[in-house]
Amino acid sequence: MTFAMRDSPHEKWDQLILALPGRHILQSREWGEAKRISGWKPAYKTWWDSGDQIAAAALILTRTISLKGIEFPLRIMYIPRGPILREWVDHDLRTKVLGDMRTFGKQQNAVFIKMDPEVERGRGVPGEDGIDDNPLTQELLADLGSNAWVPSPEQVQFRNTMMIDLSPDAEQLLANMKQKTRYNVRLAQRRGVSIRPGNVSDLDLLFKMYAETSVRDGFTIRNSEYYLSLWRDFISAGLAEPLLAEVDGEPVAGVIVFRFGGRAWYMYGMSREAHREKMPNYLLQWEAMVRAKQAGCVEYDLWGAPDDFDESDDLWGVYRFKSGLGAEVVRFIGAWDLPLNHIFYRSYTQLIPRVLDLMRRKGAEETRSVIQSG
């Protein structure tokens, strides 16, 4: 079967990719348009088979390299959680998509193309019982390597995640949790924690809680303009819902859950020090699961798991919390780069860790100032 690439109008993009398995919120039109605020230009590419059926799609983000306000005639390209293929095991389709991406990158004078498709390595924790590895992954990775793709030194998204199957009824979902987690859900209810849906008027409050969380837990976030614009756009499109936990009317924690194509994503969580002993985060997750199921979602993606499943990993505490909710580990192949300008690619990969470190320090200082001003 032959395949042909087309440019697709962004207005119809979501409808197009919903026809493919593995569609992801980071491949949605709303995500592509939201990234413009960060200097990315989205391109919407689809591949169609000889029967005029969509076979693949890729939201490709392109950004011009600049230094101190000076732009260079060089670009970087990124395909977040894509491309999406009808069948990754279809060699002809895969070859066509990756070849067209290479051609497009050269046309755009890209230094490299980064992709991190949701191609599973397997499920379960390596070394534990019940692990299920994908037998086709090694063949795919060998094919990528033979076509000059290399494992990326910069993983933008989490390599692994944790997923909850929402198909059981509410009683069974609770039963699938670990005993301590169920206890904490009920403890929060007994101690007066209540959950309410939020709206755009709550976003300033949610960002301040998010800033407080980032300082307390030691991770770096972007400026408020980025998050407020992103959250507002997705909420307005009906693709995201904030939930707030309150004690006696006082907001103490929140989540923003994204929904698209039958899956929900827990992408942003925030909390304050106040009333943490009442376990509001456990009740928030339970309510998020219930509301996602009511909205027609069949999966709840908890967004992130360790690279190495031992206590030395920074995400170990997060992993224990999520596993208590009854989530299954899903391991992906991670991000891969296709260098198109090898000299600049080597320079970029050596420079970017230093730039990111400076940005993290600056971001942490700005975040502290937000908390202090609040």
Question: How does this structure look, described?
Answer:
With 374 residues, the chain is of the alpha+beta class. It is built from eleven helices and 17 strands. The chain has helices spanning 13-17, 29-34, 91-107, 137-146, 170-176, 179-190, 203-217, 224-236, 280-294, 316-324, 342-373; strands spanning 3-7, 41-49, 54-67, 70-79, 84-85, 110-115, 120-123, 132-133, 150-151, 160-165, 193-197, 240-247, 250-260, 263-271, 299-301, 328-332, 336-339. Strands 8-7-16-10-15-14-13-12-11 form a nine-stranded mixed beta sheet, with helices on both faces. Strand 13 and strand 14 form a beta hairpin. Helix 6 packs across helix 9 (280-294) and helix 7 crosses helix 11. The longest helix has 32 residues, at 342-373. The protein is globular. The termini are far apart.
Topology:
Layout: E1 3-7, H1 13-17, H2 29-34, E2 41-49, E3 54-67, E4 70-79, E5 84-85, H3 91-107, E6 110-115, E7 120-123, E8 132-133, H4 137-146, E9 150-151, E10 160-165, H5 170-176, H6 179-190, E11 193-197, H7 203-217, H8 224-236, E12 240-247, E13 250-260, E14 263-271, H9 280-294, E15 299-301, H10 316-324, E16 328-332, E17 336-339, H11 342-373
Parallel strand pairs: 4-6, 14-15
Antiparallel strand pairs: 1-2, 2-3, 3-4, 3-5, 6-17, 7-8, 7-16, 9-17, 10-15, 10-16, 11-12, 12-13, 13-14
